[in-house]
Amino acid sequence: KKQITEHLHQGREHELTRNSSPRLLFVLFNTVLIAVSKIFFHNCAAILSDAAIVYTVAELYMGNTRPAWTTSLNVALRNVHQLFLVGFIIFVGIVVGYACLGVGGIYVAVVSSLVTPVIMVEGKTAVEALQRSVQLTQGFRWHIVTCLAIIFILNYLVSHLLNMLFSGGTLGMWFSVYGSLVNMLPASIFVPAVAILKTVIYLSIRGEKEGLDADGLASEMGHRSLLSPSEIFEYQELSMADGTPMPGDESEQAGPL
Fold first, then answer.
1. Mind telling me which residue stretches traverse the membrane in this protein (predicted)?
2. Do 246 and 218 touch, CB atoms closer than 8 A?
3. Both ends of the chain: CA-CA distance in Å?
4. Distance CA 164, CA 170 (A)
5. Are 83 and 47 in contact (CB under 8 A)?
6. Is the pTM of this model over 0.70?
């Protein structure tokens, strides 16, 4: 009887293990899928919000004291394919840089730090924006490293302080809904701060290297960011009909002095 009982018990355990394996795989697959989806949508929101903030800061620099957030978001959506492409290229470059040289990832992050302002303001493609960012950051890279390091340190200190205040230093709290909400507070400040900082650095570098001012920025953004390609074509036809140049084209039509 004892042997029969043990045999039946082993059979039940084997059957439970066999039946639970597909369930475990299903749960694991769902968990991975949810995690990847959260990361994807979080990155999408971060990229769009970053681009919209860059455009808003550029409008403030031009003298528009009441920029419309809908306009900034629409411009970001029009450039979303270039923003995602350049983000993927930078991600691969940073991963390879860290894997090969360690500090190589930091170098890639610094020289590519101005790609979003370049795309949003100058209307460049992903590859052109990378080349332009490398060109603009030359001579200012230590300055950029210092500014970004200060922002990252402040973000770490705020996150660590919130961790101590709300959870007593334990990690279990961060896996709860309440912990997730608290953990989002530094990010809600950190992401806009980085976008504003990058735009200010971009505008200051262009002002020093190229003499860019508010009027030049307004003419540059007037037809490259605000208008779609079809609208630009229609505007060009109207301009040719009445002799009015497009914004930013006055210097080209004036010719050499």
1. 21-40, 83-110, 140-158
2. no
3. 110
4. 8
5. yes
6. no
